Amino acid sequence: MNLNVVVLLFLLLISSATCCPPSDRRALLAFRSALHEPYLGIFNSWTGQDCCHNWYGISCDSLTHRVADINLRGESEDPIFERAHRTGYMTGHISASICDLTRLSAITIADWKGISGEIPKCITRLPFLRTLDLIGNQISGGIPYDIGRLNRLAVLNVADNRISGSIPKSLTNLSSLMHLDLRNNLISGVIPSDVGRLKMLSRALLSGNRITGRIPESLTTIYRLADVDLSGNQLYGTIPPSLGRMSVLATLNLDGNKISGEIPQTLMTSSVMNLNLSRNLLQGKIPEGFGPRSYFTVLDLSYNNLKGPIPRSISGASFIGHLDLSHNHLCGRIPVGSPFDHLEAASFMFNDCLCGKPLRACLKN
Fold first, then answer.
1. Which of 151, 156, 163 is nearest to 131 (CA)?
2. How many C-alpha atoms does 245 have within 13 Å on its Cβ side?
3. pLDDT tens-digit profile of 238-248?
4. Which is nearest to 161 in space by CA: 117, 216, 129?
5. Is the omega angle on the peptide bond into residue 335 within 30 degrees of 0, that is, cis?
6. Which runs of consecutive H residues, i.e. helices, occur in the chain?
7. What per-residue confidence (pLDDT) applies to 10?
């Protein structure tokens, strides 16, 4: 055999071994055909036979040369955005052909503002998927009912869309889930009562939906949970005192619900540093029990039905950055000293009979 022919065959063999399979290329082109991106030309690089090299937003596994990541962000510092002096805009829908990329570990199609349609139901057949990030689009329909099949999924982010329906019961099967972001959608129904099965979860962001029911007690058994945002829903019932006994919980936002009852004393000396309980139906007194372990960057109890005095023990907190007690029924003298010496009148206004700096002076007996 001619030496040149041998060399040519060798080069072709190497090329075919390092290119993505034709089936992956076909799936990507079908995926692209369902989308329209008019301003940046991000799909202009999707040419040639090898989708593993120089196809914008596509990464392949170094051993199998199968497509592993789709990373398409509409807000990025990539030069393609800087040259255009704008963020991205894309319309169309996410084609079910994406499910033919069976080695995918990450799907990020984020902040394109105009992508609509539903999450392909077949996406739950991608056994290696670890990240599903579809934030900032116009995606509608429900979260696939069998999302719990994705036992490697660590990030589920569908915030800022038009997702409706309830949280699937199977979601609590996601034993690897660490980041759950469902904010600003049209999700209704209740938080699954067995949400505590998500033992790896560190962030649960469910604000700005239509979620009803009570805060499940099992939520407080998730040891790694550091950030809980349930604000802007229709939750009712009382605050579980066990929330204040969680070891690493740093942010608890329950603003804008229909939560009633009293504030658990456990929250005053917990690990929570950002505590927002405003715009609810909370009653009773602000609990005593503040002390050196009380460290709040934000403590917002405004727009409730709290009565009685501001507890004196609050002066014993190690730090309170922003405090808002306005729009309640509090009465009595505002304590002096830290943190009250740096707060403005807005923190105390629209109560029944609070007095002292920074409000009017108290009447002398």
1. 156
2. 9
3. 999 999 999 99
4. 117
5. no
6. 3-18, 22-33, 79-84
7. 38
For tokens 């950030």, name the residue: 227
CA atoms of 285 and 306, how far apart (whole Å): 6
Predicted local distance difference test score (pLDDT) of residue 15? 42
| pLDDT tens readout for residues 300-327 | 999 999 999 999 999 889 999 999 999 9
- Residue 3's pLDDT is 47
Rounded (10°) CA dihedral 8, 10, 13, 17: -130
Interatomic CA distance for residues 295 and 80, integer angstroms: 44
Q: How many helices (H) and strands (E) does the chain have?
A: 3, 23
Give the residue ranges of the chain where pLDDT is below 70: 1-18, 365
Contacting residues for 31 by C-beta, under 8 A, at least 6 apart: 70, 94, 95, 97, 98
Could you give the CA distance from residue 359 to residue 343 in angstroms, rounded to a whole number?
10
| 236-237 β-sheet, strand order | 236-237, 258-261, 281-282
DSSP letter at 33 equals H
Instruction: Report how far residue 241's alpha carbon sits from residue 234's, in angstroms, rounded to the nearest whole number.
Output: 20
In the sheet that holds 35-36, the strands lie side by side as: 35-36, 90-93, 113-116
Given a contact cutoff of 8 angstroms between Cβ atoms, the answer to whether 279 and 258 are in contact is: no
Percent of the chain with pLDDT over 70: 95
The pLDDT, as a whole number, for residue 11 is 36
The phi, psi pair for 70, rounded to 5°, reads: -115, 115
DSSP symbols for 272-334: -SEEE--SSEE-SBPPS---TT-EEEEEE--SS--EEPPPGGGGG-SEEEEEE--SSEEEEEP
Cα separation of 119 and 332, whole Å? 55
| Token representation of residue 357 | 């700096």
Task: Quote the pLDDT of residue 199.
Answer: 97
What is the rounded radius of gyration, in angstroms, for the C-alpha atoms of the chain?
27
In this prediction, residue 123 carries a pLDDT of 98
Which residue, 46, 45, 54, is CA-closest to 27?
Answer: 46
Contact 214/237 with Cβ under 8 angstroms? yes
pTM above 0.85, yes or no: yes
What's the distance, CA 146 to chain centroid?
20
Report how far residue 207's alpha carbon sits from residue 263's, in angstroms, rounded to the nearest whole number: 20
Beta bridge pairs of residue 203: 179, 227
